[in-house]
Specification:
mainly alpha
């Protein structure tokens, strides 16, 4: 479960503030985290002895929050600034650059720049493998990202191979019950659903939800995607009523914690409309599709895929 001190306890020291902000992000407290990160960024800008790693980490986390809002252009700008800060000090092959590269790759994938996304992720994989070894969990996070790229290319066999390689890393580290491993399980569910294995995909999504809810509680925004995924799987399994139940949960959670105009709400609405069409409720489906289009028209990132994929691959895998 997410536990952190009261806001008054979030001390101003740069690293402590960053640690607190990242804990707030894990707990789904995005607005509070962003305010803390912006204050930290301003303090660093005024400092004559700023630590490049701390500045880069702050910019990376601000990029993460912008991506969570669906503002991919802003996120990409933060990630590029983070990379520039690190490269000016450590060169372009430092281990600290790999996570931001992976994050920027996720943004590029979201806006359809698939080749660039894959190139960045392979660079991040090379850096992590060389600096941390092939069995580090950070390597698994990049493999998950590469698998998502493969899904976008309809290369599902390659995606499964990458995801099983990632799961093997968690097994080596005896961390198969972590949220990072559950993210891999969610991605396996996406591939299974794309391959027509709706029952297998349901098991993956259900397993993901159990671990996510145990770690974060029932109101964390990270639950939205696997909930919606489970709803889609139920629809494809011929159980649209069950699918509507899961999609209703996902939609209510998304609107409550992200706001009614968030791009993720639009994705859930699109999937909800698909379920309603299966139930012959065409007018309700059209209403939801119209609302989804309106939300996406206001977003900087109208490039969501047919199946929702866990955004957790954006998160700082190094945060504990």
């Amino acid at each position: 479960m997410c536990v952190f001190g009261a806001t008054s306890e979030l001390v101003a020291a740069d690293d402590s503030a960053l640690n607190s902000a990242e804990q707030l992000i894990r707990c789904g407290k995005y607005a509070v985290a962003e305010a803390l990160l912006r204050d930290t960024s301003q303090d660093l800008a005024k400092s004559e002895h700023k630590n490049p790693s701390t500045l880069a980490r702050t910019l990376n986390d601000l990029g993460l929050l912008a991506a969570y809002r669906g503002n991919y252009l802003e996120a990409a700008d933060y990630y590029r600034r983070s990379l520039s800060t690190l490269e000016a000090t450590y060169g372009n092959d430092g281990a600290e650059s790999a996570q931001t590269l992976n994050n920027l790759a996720s943004v590029y994938l979201a806006v359809g720049r698939i080749a660039e996304s894959e190139r960045m992720r392979r660079h991040a994989l090379e850096i992590y493998t060389r600096s941390l070894g092939p069995d580090d969990p950070k390597v698994a996070a990049v493999l998950n990202g590469l698998a998502i790229v493969a899904v976008r290319r309809n290369q599902n066999t390659e995606a499964v191979a990458l995801l099983r390689r990632a799961l093997a890393i968690f097994q080596v580290n005896q961390t198969s019950d972590t949220v990072e491993a559950a993210s891999i399980d969610n991605s396996l569910g996406v591939v299974a659903l794309a391959d027509g294995d709706c029952q297998g995909s349901r098991l993956h999504f259900q397993s993901t939800l159990v671990i996510y809810e145990k770690a974060w509680g029932p109101d964390n925004p990270q639950l939205i995607k696997p909930l919606a995924n489970l709803g889609v799987a139920d629809v494809f399994c011929g159980c649209p009523l069950e699918g509507v139940t899961e999609l209703t949960k996902a939609l209510n959670l998304a609107e409550r914690v992200l706001g009614s105009e968030h791009p993720e709400v639009a994705q859930v609405l699109s999937n909800y409309a698909m379920a309603l069409r299966r139930l012959k409720r065409k007018s309700d489906a059209k209403r939801m599709e119209k609302r989804a289009r309106e939300i996406l028209a206001q977003s900087s990132g109208d490039a969501l895929g047919r199946y929702t994929v866990d955004i957790g691959d954006l998160a700082r895998s190094g945060a504990q």
